[in-house]
């Protein structure tokens, strides 16, 4: 049996490091077959490895794989061009919510002409024509990435990546402590820290879910250590990075007394006002809110229940009813939030995490856009539950990248059916196994 020790300790990490090398440096999003083979290979090796290794091995292996991706150019998403653009605006004392890139591109004297041309050309027409939709903490992170050398794309990428890796390390340490506090094995953090989706989308493609989750985990850590004011501020920072945690606030409120909830709500609201006020005191929030609404009324990608509703709309109306659905969907989401938060009080943290996981899952099942990196939040929440469907989803969601292999970015609805068919099957099995959905509220 001794042969298994070096195999798990050295050969698997070496094999995974090589796969990350190939996927990060020798694969484009148009090479969908190569990308999926490498990705599913990584998921297979991760599943084989993470169940048997120690917490220290999880840490050093996660750091190793992130180091492999340190100097790669993001290859699956072009969002980082807009990130750096917004950072340059702040660096030049311009409000990213006040100007679209198209409005400023004809004024090259404001920035480095060569860099701005590269950023504007590669961020995509949709991004270039709209105001920024990234909240204030995101914006400060973008600014951080260009402070070191404002005229270098490569330096900005490296600095941003180091910041995101630091956030992931924070999630690792806070997550394992929270798992221990709530009665779970600390090694469960490996399902997040070694998850290929987390590495590919956060370290590789520079998305900010990891920073949001760091502040979210920090808020919980401060809360369990009875530092309510600081906990509220940390949760506000999480919302200030990505707006998604706003959906989870009502569920958290039902976990504690009304007095504590009121105090934390006031502290959190004040923190959010202080975070947003410097950006919106002169221009208002109209531009920002208008951009947010576009995600409900104009864009579609990798939807599930939404695509079924759209198909029904085609059959009845003979046209795409996305705008009508965009008007209705927010109200349905509000109703679901109220159901999850009010149906039954949450007597312990495990029930809260279950409710948060199922609530956020319902939101993504209904959404018109489900990018792969969105699922990372579900992966983290699932660590504190007995549900495993987010882990399946974290692998299957990568099937959506087949869209980019098509010259006109045509989605493959068969693969979307496979993705959600398996996810719904696993979720259904796990709910039936627990006998009643209501006990998870």
Structure described in brief:
By secondary structure, this protein is mainly alpha-helical. The protein has helices spanning 4-25, 32-50, 55-68, 79-91, 101-104, 113-122, 125-128, 136-147, 153-181, 190-193, 196-204, 209-224, 228-241, 249-253, 258-280, 286-297, 305-317, 322-342, 349-366, 375-382, 389-396, 413-433.
- The Rg value, from CA coordinates, equals 22 Å
Query: What is the count of distinct domains?
Result: 2
Low-confidence spans: pLDDT under 50, at least 5 residues? 1-5, 436-441
Beta-strand fraction estimate: under 5%
The helix/strand order is HHHHHHHHHHHHHHHHHHHHHH
Shape: globular
State the end-to-end distance. Answer: 45 Å
Q: For the residues shown, what is the average pLDDT?
A: 88
What is the share of helical residues? 55-70%
Number of helices, counting only DSSP H or I runs of 4 residues or more: 22
Task: Describe the main β-sheet briefly.
Answer: none
The secondary structure category is mainly alpha
Structure summary, number of beta strands: 0
């Amino acid at each position: 049996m001794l042969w298994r020790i070096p195999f798990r300790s050295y050969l698997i990490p070496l094999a995974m490091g090589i796969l990350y090398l190939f996927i990060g440096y020798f694969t484009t999003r148009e090479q969908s077959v190569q990308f999926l083979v490498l990705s599913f290979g990584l998921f297979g090796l991760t599943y084989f490895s993470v169940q048997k290794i120690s917490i220290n091995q999880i840490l050093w292996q996660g750091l190793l794989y992130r180091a492999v991706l340190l100097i790669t150019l993001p290859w699956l998403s072009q969002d980082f061009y807009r990130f750096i653009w917004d950072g340059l605006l702040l660096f030049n004392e311009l409000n990213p919510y006040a100007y679209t890139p198209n409005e400023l591109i004809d004024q090259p004297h404001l920035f480095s002409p060569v860099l701005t041309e590269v950023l504007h050309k590669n961020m995509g027409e949709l991004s270039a024509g709209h105001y920024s939709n990234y909240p204030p903490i995101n914006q400060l992170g973008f600014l951080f990435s260009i402070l070191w050398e404002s005229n270098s794309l490569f330096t900005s990428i490296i600095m941003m990546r180091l910041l995101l890796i630091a956030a992931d390390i924070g999630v690792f340490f806070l997550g394992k402590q929270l798992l221990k506090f709530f009665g779970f094995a600390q090694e469960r953090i490996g399902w997040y820290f070694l998850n290929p989706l987390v590495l590919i989308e956060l370290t590789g493609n520079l998305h900010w879910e990891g920073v949001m989750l760091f502040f979210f985990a920090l808020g919980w850590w401060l809360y369990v250590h009875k530092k309510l004011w600081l906990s509220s501020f940390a949760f506000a920072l999480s919302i200030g990075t990505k707006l998604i945690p706003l959906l989870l606030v009502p569920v958290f409120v039902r976990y504690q007394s009304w007095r504590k909830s009121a105090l934390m709500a006031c502290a959190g609201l004040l923190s959010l006002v202080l975070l947003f006020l410097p950006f919106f005191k002169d221009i208002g929030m109209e531009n920002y809110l208008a951009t947010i609404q576009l995600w409900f009324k104009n864009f579609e990608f990798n939807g599930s229940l939404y695509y079924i509703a759209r198909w029904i709309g085609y059959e009845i109306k003979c046209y795409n009813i996305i705008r009508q659905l965009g008007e209705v969907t927010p109200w349905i989401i509000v109703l679901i939030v109220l159901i999850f938060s009010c149906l039954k009080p949450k007597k312990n943290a495990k029930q809260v995490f279950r409710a948060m996981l199922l609530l956020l899952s319902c939101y993504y099942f209904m959404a018109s856009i489900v990018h792969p990196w969105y699922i990372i939040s579900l992966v983290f929440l699932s660590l504190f539950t007995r549900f495993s469907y987010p882990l399946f989803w974290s692998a299957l969601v990568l099937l959506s990248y087949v869209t980019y292999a098509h010259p006109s970015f045509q989605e493959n609805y068969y693969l979307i059916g496979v993705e959600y068919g398996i996810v719904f099957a696993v979720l259904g099995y796990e709910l039936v196994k627990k006998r009643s959905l209501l006990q998870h509220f």
